[in-house]
Give the backbone structure.
Amino acid sequence: MDVRVHLDKGVLGTAAAEEGAAGIRQALAASRTANVILATGASQFEMLDALVGADLDWARITVFHLDEYIGLPVMHGASFRKYLRERVMDRLRVKPAFIEVAGDAPDAGAEVARLGNLIARHAIDVCFAGIGENGHLAFNDPPADFETEAPYLVVDLDEACRRQQLGEGWFPDLDAVPRQAISMGIRQILKSRQIVLSVPDARKADAVAATVEGPVTPLCPASILQRHPKVTLHLDPASASGLHR
C-alpha cells in the first residue's frame, strides 16, 4: 500500500483525482473504454471537485455507484445517488454511463441481483473510495464478510457507522439514519485494477492506523487492502497522526 500524506484536504483531493484520472486515461488508451467506481461522503468532496475538472473523455466511461441506504428516496438530502448526481453528473458537459444503486427499490434482493449482473460485464479500472471511522470499506461494517463473492449485498449498518453519518450532518438525529444499505462487497472492490483512497480528518486516524499497520481482519474491513497490489492511500496530517511507521 502506497501511503501519501499531503499538506491539507485540498491538496489531498487534487492528488487523488490526478492519480485516478491517469489510471482512467491508461484504460481508455488500452481498450477505448474505462469503468470506474465512485464513493461518496464528506471525505470525497475535494477529490470529486478535482476529478470533475480533469481532462477525461467521460462519454467512454461507465461509473458504478458504491453503496446506498435502503429505503431512502433519491431526493433525500443524504441520498448518495443525489450526492453523485449533483456533485458529478450534473457538472459534466458530457455524461458517463451511470449505474446507480436504487436503495428505494421495492425489492432490495432484485436490485442487488440487477447490479451484480451489470458489474459482471465490466472490469473495473479505478475505484475511488474512502475509509469509515470504524474501518469500513463501502458500507461493509465490522465484522465484514471477506468471503462472499456477491458483487453487491444487503448489509446492516452498525452504530458507529450510523453515528458517523449523523456527525457529518446528513441526518437530524440517530433514529433517522437507516439501519441497512446496499453495498458493493469486499471481493468485488478488490477486483478493481487500481484503488485510490481519500481519507482526511483526525476522526479517521485510528481507522487509518489499523488499516495500514494492523493485522488483516474483518474487524477492520479496510485492512484487506494490504493484500491488493495497487492501492494508494491519500491522507492529510490529521488522518495520518496515528501512524507509527
Notes: The radius of gyration is 17 Å. Residues 76 and 82 are 8 Å apart (CA to CA).
